Amino acid sequence: MGAAWTKTKRPPLALTKENVDDFMQQFDTIVSDCDGVLWTPLRGIPHVKEGLESLRAAGKKILFVTNNSVIPPFRKFERLGFAVQKNEVVYPAIAIGRYLEKIGFKKKAFVLGVEHFKDELRSRGVAVVPDKRTSDLMEEDLGAMLRAIHEDTDIGAVIVDLDVNLTFMDLVKATNHLKRPDCMFLVGATDSFVTFDEGKILLGPGHFIRTLEECSGRKAELIGKPGPMMVSEYLQEIHNLNMDRTIFMGDSLVQDMGVANACGMKKLLVLSGMTQLKDLETCDPELLPDYYIDSIGDLPALLGQRGA
């Protein structure tokens, strides 16, 4: 394969019946991404439920991390027929809300995100600004735009995630709040874009995060992947994880393999989502997985070979 592999101790290994026994002995807990691993927006992934059940049958603890705060994953788990506890699943809205609760945050938060994201923060006692969306269009006049920028020292955080109703003035106002060094800058999802079924592309908040960083001179604190907080603080504290005995399973090199690196976990890449095998030839060597598999749905057959 490509030059990236030559810089590592060994190339990523395809998970096979010959090495699955050694693989399974390396971890007690598996932390899994959701989108692209367990399901996609428009189609299911065959035999995913059986793959998850085969891991549980082998005595492995399974936890779930997703950057998707738009639609809570719990209903998808119900449709999949796989039971999870609420504290076994984390996404940025949960992690940010819990973090603000822990530090005793009492100010208002200027939030660029969908309503579910905002509701999760409100459930933790966070006063969200703007409280409600408006359909009013901004007057196309420089003076009107400047008058719309209001200093509010009670805003203690700018929080950014995917916001499908984002406006130019939202970015302008966020930039001005971030001029104050005491205003925190927290971000959830960091993807610049995501390619879905049929090749359709959705923009992620990554581009807007970089715009805010450039215009404000501030560096965002990553709560979502590849930032470590959802794993190293939320799941770690609740489930007392031993990172040396934990593996991360995901379909993204930057977000999923990145968070595995940040938390010191082993890495399993699945090829049912964003990444293709050819992408490993040119990716950052630090993001190369330890193992890869076409789909989690392939696990039952592999584990069946060893009597699991």
TrEMBL record:
KW Transferase (keyword) present: no
InterPro entries to which the protein is assigned, alphabetical: HAD-like_sf (IPR036412), HAD-SF_hydro_IIA (IPR006357), HAD_sf (IPR023214)
Active site: 33 (nucleophile), 35 (proton donor)
Gene Ontology cellular component terms for the protein in this record: cytoplasm
Any GO molecular function: metal ion binding
Cofactor, how bound (note): Divalent metal ions. Mg(2+) is the most effective.
SUPFAM superfamilies assigned to the protein according to its UniProt record, in alphabetical order: HAD-like
UniProt keyword Transport, yes or no: no
UniProt-annotated binding residues for Mg(2+): 33, 35, 251
Pfam families recorded: Hydrolase_6 (PF13344), Hydrolase_like (PF13242)
Binding-site residues, substrate: 225
Keywords for the protein's UniProt record, in alphabetical order: Hydrolase, Magnesium, Metal-binding
Top-level taxon: Eukaryota
Cofactors, names only: Mg(2+)
PANTHER family, sorted: 4-NITROPHENYLPHOSPHATASE-RELATED, RE04130P-RELATED
Protein family according to the UniProt entry: Belongs to the HAD-like hydrolase superfamily.
UniProt protein name: Glycerol-3-phosphate phosphatase-like
Organism this protein belongs to: Frankliniella occidentalis (Western flower thrips)
